[in-house]
């Protein structure tokens, strides 16, 4: 598990810029969702930046890509859904990318590089946030190979840090 390397609060004047960046990246009105003057804390690990907004771990950044954490229920519930079979779940929860043979259903339409929520077939619960490699049409037609890049999953460093801090 990664440890926090650096932890700091974003200055108020910088938070406006960050909210605009989040809005553009995710296609949301961040100011409307989080308020015009949210308290933003950044936790940097060796791999990610985790953004605590008003005390909740809602966003993260990996390799310059903003994405919602599994704790940002309001946003991930609106993303296109990829349902995977139970055989794929342990691999995904260990960081593996999502392969076409493990996909049971693709709900919603999306473009290449769009964010999606990965849910398991049995419990219908989110287990990962991934970035599409293909658009929805090509994804449905593909029968082999990698189709989604796993950005965040149950059990990763973001999940572990947040679960530890919530239970502490």
What fraction of residues sit in β-strands? 25-35%
The biggest beta sheet is recorded as: 6 strands, mixed
Output the helix-strand order: EHHEEEEHEHEEEEHEH
Cα end-to-end separation: 16 Å
Briefly characterize the structure.
With 168 residues, this protein is α+β, with helices and mostly antiparallel strands. The chain contains six helices and eleven strands. The radius of gyration is 16 Å and the shape is globular.
Question: Could you please describe the fold and organization of this structure?
Answer:
The protein has 168 residues and is of the alpha+beta class. The protein has six helices and eleven strands. The protein has helices at residues 12-26, 30-34, 73-76, 89-92, 136-141, 157-167, and strands at residues 6-9, 40-44, 49-53, 56-62, 65-68, 81-84, 98-99, 103-107, 115-120, 126-132, 146-153. The strands form two sheets. It has a six-stranded mixed β-sheet with strand order 7-11-10-9-6-8. It has a five-stranded antiparallel β-sheet with strand order 1-2-3-4-5, with helices on one face. A hairpin with a 2-residue loop joins strand 3 (49-53) and strand 4 (56-62). The radius of gyration is 16 Å and the shape is globular. The chain starts with 5 loop residues before the first strand and ends with a helix. The model has no long low-confidence stretch (mean pLDDT 91).
